[in-house]
Amino acid sequence: MTTSPSVLINADLPLSLFFRGKVRDTYELGNLLLLIATDRISAFDVVLPCGIPTKGLVLNQFSTFWFEKTKNIIPNHLIEAVDDVQCLDSYLPAENRFSYPSYLAGRSMIVKKLERIPVECVVRGYLSGSAWAEYKQHGTISSQPLAKGLQESQELPQPLFTPTTKAETGHDQPLSMDETKRLVGEALAEEIKEISLAIYSYAREYARTRGIIIADTKMEFGLDNGSLILIDELLTPDSSRFWDIEQYKVGQPQDSYDKQPVRDWLTQTGWNKEPPAPMLPPEVIEATTKRYQTAYERLTGGKLK
Q1: Which of 94, 103, 106, 230 is the most exposed place for a label (fewest CB within 10 A)?
Q2: pTM, 2 dp
Q3: CATH topology of 17-113 equal to that of 116-258?
Q4: What are the CA-CA distances from residue 29 to residues 104, 120, 204, 220 (Å)?
């Protein structure tokens, strides 16, 4: 385990590891899971050798915030946010309890263990990123035709549901709605589309009151005894593009509250986007840390715990 007072790279607990993803470490708690947001950062589908201080706190507390605000749209997998590590006593038999590391507070949550739907549910409200690249070349987004003459970063006439595969390694691949229906069934595909659009629309309107544009986002769902439920993370800087309304200008790229400084620096180095990734310089780490914290504070109106 590599840690410092402000950077957690890997969680290291005397529990059965359920899954280690690019950012999160997940441990077994019987029929529940302990989901820990580390400070790891990935770019171009490669995990970097350094962490971003407090990034895991931002991701975890952002998701907790949005899960609470959207629970009337759809239930989610959150059982309890770990604000006090001693709450874990409630989920472990006495003989399995241990000295809980303090880093669990603020960056972990107890969640339901559910069947994951193998679709990344992407909703786009603005023409940016890979969608802009596709539109310039083909006049489409995720193979859906759009009107001619749209500009980079322009708001779309209506938000678009553009699902992708959920790849454990490498790049997610775009899915048409027909392909999504073949993958998960027609009724479930229509339901995840409807809920994804509803969550995005709600969050977008809320964010505008905080001076932020949510250009696009992605979310994941699972099944809880056959019923759809929201899982993983929600509306974080890792899964969304946040833009400042005051700085927004159509026809150009926007400055985002996310890991854009990391992507920019890596691109400038000429790195071939294959492991191992280079170590980030201190100024890029600092700039990225600030962006994550600023996004959290502006959208929630609170301070990180």
Answers
A1: 94
A2: 0.94
A3: no
A4: 15, 25, 35, 21
